[in-house]
Amino acid sequence: MKMPYSREHKTRASFPHARLAGVLILAAAMIQAAWSQFTPRNTVPAPFASGERLVYHVEWTPPLWLFFLPAMEAGEATLTLVGETQYKDKKALKIIFTARSSGALARFTGKNIDDSYEFTTDPETFCTYRVSEMEREGKRMRDIDVLYLPDTRQVHIREVDVSGPIPRVLRDKDYDEIPPDVKDLFSALYALRQTDLAVNSSRQVLVAFNERVKEVEIRVEKSEQVHTPAGNYKAWQVSTVAVFGGLFKNGGQFRIWLSADNRKIPVKFEAKISLGKVTGSLMKARLMENNARYRSAADHCYELLNQLLEQYRRF
Fold it and tell me: Which domain holds residue 187?
C-alpha cells in the first residue's frame, strides 16, 4: 500500500542529501584555499640531498693594468653537503667548502693555499649556527671558530695563530648587535636553490662573514648558456650586491650561475676582487637523489578530503 505523501517524510528523506551537499561545498572552498597556498615548485623533488659534492676548476684573471699577464690556473674548490648532524640538541646541516691552490698562479706567487671551512646551519631556515675555519695560506696559518648567538644578538669569535710551535690566541671575544637571522655565503646559496627563480626577480638576505654582516640583494639578471668542463648548461645568472659597502672585506662583487632546472646546481661562480677576478667552473659533480618532496597542493587537498569524509561518516 502506497504511503501518503507528507512534508515531514520529504524533509527526513532529503536531509542526508542536503548534508552531503553542504560537506561538498565546504570541501570545495577548503581545497581552493589550500591550492592557493602552493606553487608548482612545491610538487617537485628537493633540489639537493646529503652527499652532494661539487668540484670546481678555479682560474685567476689579472686586472687590466696587469695586461701583460695571462689568465692563470689558480687551483680547485670543492663544495660538499655532508648531511644532517646535531648542534646543541637541535637538528643541523653540515656544509664543507675547501680551496686548494695549484698551477701557474701558485708557482707565480710562491704561495700555497689550503683552506677548509665547515658550516653548521639550520636545515629549515639555513641561518648559520657555527663556522669552523682552517686557513693555511703560505706562512699565515689560522684556526677560527665562529659561534652565532641569536638569543643575545652576538657572535663569539676565537682566532688562533697556529703557525708557530706554540699556538697563540689572537682574539677570543664577543661582538654585539648581530641580527639573529644571518646566513653565511654557502648556507645562503643552498637557501636560494630552494626558491623559484625568474629574470629580474630579487630578494634580500643578511650575509655574515665572521663579525661583519651585510644586507645583500640577490638578483636574477638573465638566462644563458654556460660552458664548463662538466658540460654545457642553461643557467640563471645571479648577481649579489651589498646594499651598503662591498660584499667582501676589501670590496668586490660575487656572481653565480645556477642550472635552470629543478636542481639549480651552481655550475659557475665569479668573484671580482681588488686584484682581478676569480672564476670557478664546475669540473665534477656527485649529485644525490632526494626522494623527499616539497609538500604538494594535491597531498594537502587529499588530507582535507579524508578529514571531511570522516566528519560526514560521524553524522
Answer: 50-286
Q: 200 forms bridges with which residues in the sheet?
A: none
Does the residue 314 lie in any domain? no
Q: Could you tell me if residue 221 is inside a domain?
A: yes
**pTM for the whole thing?**
0.76
Whether residue 262 lies inside any domain: the answer is yes
In a domain? residue 34? no
- Alpha-carbon distance of 156 to 210, in angstroms, equals 9
By residue count, the chain amounts to 315
Is 302:290 a contact under the CB 8 Å cutoff? Answer: no
Instruction: Quote the number of domains for the chain.
Output: 1
Q: Which three cell numbers stand for residue 173?
A: 671575544
Question: Beta-strand (E) ranges in the chain?
Answer: 53-61, 72-87, 90-101, 114-121, 128-137, 140-149, 154-161, 168-175, 202-209, 212-228, 231-242, 253-259, 266-273, 276-286
Per-residue pLDDT of the chain (315 residues; tens, 9 = 90+): 444 544 444 444 444 555 555 555 555 555 555 444 444 444 456 799 999 999 999 999 988 888 888 888 989 999 999 999 999 989 999 999 999 998 887 787 888 999 999 999 999 999 999 999 999 999 999 999 999 999 999 999 999 999 999 999 999 999 999 999 999 999 999 999 999 999 999 999 999 999 999 888 999 999 999 999 999 999 999 998 765 444 444 445 789 999 999 999 999 999 888 788 999 999 999 988 765 544 444 455 555 556 665 665 555
